């Protein structure tokens, strides 16, 4: 490895250590109670190293938030083994169309419900909830929060809904608006479930309501069992 490559690798390793340390601190203490000093102490680095890579705590928080949302998006959409990383949304949609082509409408509908439940389950971890659903809402601007949600949450859900519409399962509605509103419902559900003492029972109750909400999106043809495909 050349000198330049080694420096790049070292810089990347330093950034990863800072992000990991910040994620642990933000999860345990919350953004407001976490200082740069505590982050670098946990990472076993110096403040000079911190400010070489990040302009401040807010920029580091954004990187932590992006990483978590990326992980959660992939985890929520890998239930049936069809998630693949993608560089262009259109190319991913083509691959998803091919994946779904051989599936029945009932399987597609079941998967949409499964993914909604999985999304909530993944977000109710106390540390992740504090970062993603509590602190992110006031630390980040609304535009930044929406951008990250769009890249790692809403976009993936929108792909499922688009296919369901094409297959005649879900009624034709404004897709971006539907995906954004459904994501908002799921995010609020995460907070509701996480704050209940019996979280498993609360999750079941919440998913009963969400399933009823999703049922209202069905086309008459699909509801009656005569969709475009079996």
UniProtKB/TrEMBL annotation:
Domain of life: Bacteria
Keywords: DNA-binding, Transcription, Transcription regulation
Segments crossing the lipid bilayer: none
Domain HTH tetR-type: 12-72
SUPFAM superfamilies registered for this protein in UniProt: Homeodomain-like
Alphabetized PANTHER family for the sequence: HTH-TYPE TRANSCRIPTIONAL REGULATOR BETI, HTH-TYPE TRANSCRIPTIONAL REGULATOR RUTR
Protein's recorded name: Transposon Tn10 TetC protein
């Amino acid at each position: 490895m050349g000198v330049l490559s080694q420096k790049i690798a070292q810089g990347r390793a330093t950034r990863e250590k800072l992000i990991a340390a910040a994620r642990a601190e933000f999860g345990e203490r919350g953004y407001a109670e976490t200082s740069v000093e505590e982050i670098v102490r946990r990472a076993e680095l110096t403040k000079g190293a911190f400010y070489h890579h990040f302009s401040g705590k807010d920029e580091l928080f954004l990187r932590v938030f992006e990483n978590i949302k990326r992980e959660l998006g992939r985890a929520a959409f890998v239930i049936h083994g069809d998630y693949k990383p993608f560089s262009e949304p259109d190319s991913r949609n083509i691959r998803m169309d091919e994946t779904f082509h051989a599936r029945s409408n009932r399987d597609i509908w079941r998967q949409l419900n499964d993914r909604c439940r999985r999304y909530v389950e993944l977000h109710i971890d106390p540390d992740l909830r504090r970062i993603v659903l509590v602190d992110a809402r006031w630390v980040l601007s609304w535009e930044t929060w929406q951008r990250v949600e769009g890249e790692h949450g809403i976009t993936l859900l929108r792909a499922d809904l688009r296919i369901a519409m094409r297959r005649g399962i879900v009624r034709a509605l404004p897709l971006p608006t539907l995906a954004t509103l459904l994501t908002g419902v799921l995010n609020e559900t995460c907070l509701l479930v996480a704050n209940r003492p019996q979280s498993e029972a609360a999750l079941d109750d919440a998913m009963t309501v969400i399933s009823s909400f999703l049922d209202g999106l069905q086309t008459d043809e699909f509801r009656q069992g005569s969709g475009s495909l079996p």
